[in-house]
What does this fold into?
Amino acid sequence: MILDVVSIFPEYLAPLDLSLIGKARREGLLDLRVHDLRDFTHDRHHSVDDSPYGGGAGMVMKPQPWAEALAHVAASGAHGARPRLIVPGPGGMPFTQALARELAEEPWLAFACGRYEGIDERVYEYAADELGLEVSVVSLGDYVLNGGEVAVLAMVEAVARLLPGVIGNAESLVEESHEDGLLEYPVYTKPASWESSAGVTRAVPPVLLSGDHGAIAAWRHQQRLERTAARRPDLLHSAAALTTQDLAITAAQPSDAAELTTLQRACWVSEAKANDTHDIPPLVESVDDVAHGLLEWQTWVVREGGRLVASVRARSHPDDPATWQIGRLMVAPDLQGRGLGRALLAHAEAQAPSGTAAYWLNTGTRSDRNLRTYRKAGYRVQPGEGAFPGTVDLLKRRR
Ligand code: SAM
It folds into this structure.
């Protein structure tokens, strides 16, 4: 992944030389380039700010140095490639684990670190209209920092640790806080009984020493619920609203075709980007095509508050009834990362008729997120090209 950061304090980014991110840079997994905004000024004082039109406190960053700096960054890509531009700002969309995952799919990110009262608004327009960049204003949280550098440090760390090879043990990413809407359970290490200097002894919860993996998993899940309820009840509400037990998965009706078409489009744009093609059936199908698909496949939908938020479909393979084909697994973009997709996949598997020997799925060769989800669910990529160009097939034996 390529990362460009433009700042008036390039030294602020020095911590990105340390620890796992520094190692990833040295190993070539991350190509991080830091640019000094003042290098793109032409006056004696290298000034980057001026007083605001309309009056008011503070200074505003001038458009010219920013335009030149961003044009310089954008021009550094090969074959017309363009970075996605992230502008940290308290007025932006919240930076979440789901957004970190989304950004981790991008090959190239550029960050514009504002200072003072922020950057002249025309820079955003220029970057989008003249440089052709996708511009996202992203906030670290509902508070105000002095500059974007701290936000970039946090975002780069959260994004980079999701890249393959950056964290030694990728399994450790799976159960972390926010991965499925809940906080992580408490963790302990040796000794099993630890005495503080005041002579108070504290023991590790006995279940963790029991060797009973089922009991440990149940205890951890309960801890996650309790911790989330205590510290972040707002998360528990949305995560709980979407737990498998509460999910109302119903058979799709012909009248669902229009909403399914809309959901497909919303869900497959990221696929089109990841696989560099727009020629994907779920993206181009008409409402009639989708209605026709409802006749050929068993399709299930999930509604939340009346809104169709997720769906999956399945059927016995027309030429091989022992194979249960599962497809069109989709979850509305704002509800992804909460286990809804996994629950729907399990539901589709559970509907397979007796005599089914294997479950079959197909996804884009470069659909890393899907591939991760399916591998976690026990699917294995089959050798060679999948059923459609640019795709791979995945299989899971039925137990
Ligand atoms: N006047 C701006 C406002 O009220 O939205 C705040 C400007 S702040 C003092 C200066 C810079 O710090 C911003 O341009 C942005 O780069 C960064 N910044 C401040 N708070 C931030 C936050 N919560 N998340 C991300 N960046 C932030």
